[in-house]
Amino acid sequence: MLGLKLATDPRWVNIVESNIEEILTDHAWCEQKAATNAITIITLNSEHTDLVTDLLILAQEELEHFQMVHDIIKKRGYKLGRERKDSYVNELYKFMNKGGNRLQCMVDRLLFSAMIEARSCERFKLLSKEIKDQELSKFYHDLMISEAGHYTTFIGFARKYGKNIDVDKRWQELIDFEAEVIQNYGKSETIHG
Length: 193
Known about the structure:
InterPro entries: Ferritin-like, Ferritin-like_SF, tRNA-Hydrxlase_MiaE. This is tRNA-(Ms[2]io[6]A)-hydroxylase. Pfam families: MiaE. The two termini are 22 Å apart. By secondary structure, this protein is mostly helical. It is globular and about 50 Å long. The longest helix is centred in the middle third of the chain and has 29 residues. Helices cover 72% and strands 0% of the residues.
């Protein structure tokens, strides 16, 4: 369903398990950034009532996920560390069309968002299957389902509003670009790292 070209090496889970506190902190900030991204899309495209309605719900879900991760952090006696830069997301951002018309920029932002959700979904699935920590296994399974829904929301709006754009072609270009980017990741205890 996600169409990703390169799967995460399962050995990444061993790296994650070596520093659970770090992955949880990174994950918490990823959820905060996802909520902020949804709000940004709303701000830039507020004339689309259905998009605003659905992305408000999505942003609230992302904030709930942020709170859920923070609750796990507190429960385990950890502290939420400082916000992390997400190099993977910054690399993907380079693909986005920043000089096109408003519609092209919207479609690219939606596809960019769908890609991040797709990769997060793929990573959460791997964690749910491979991590030894049963609480986190169930937690990541539940989040995987949510991320798949977010992926569908973003790509659905890109297709709906990108009527004069070959959205599927642009999506394939992003899949190809992401396959190149992700080759450099999977080596640190971060969601996209």
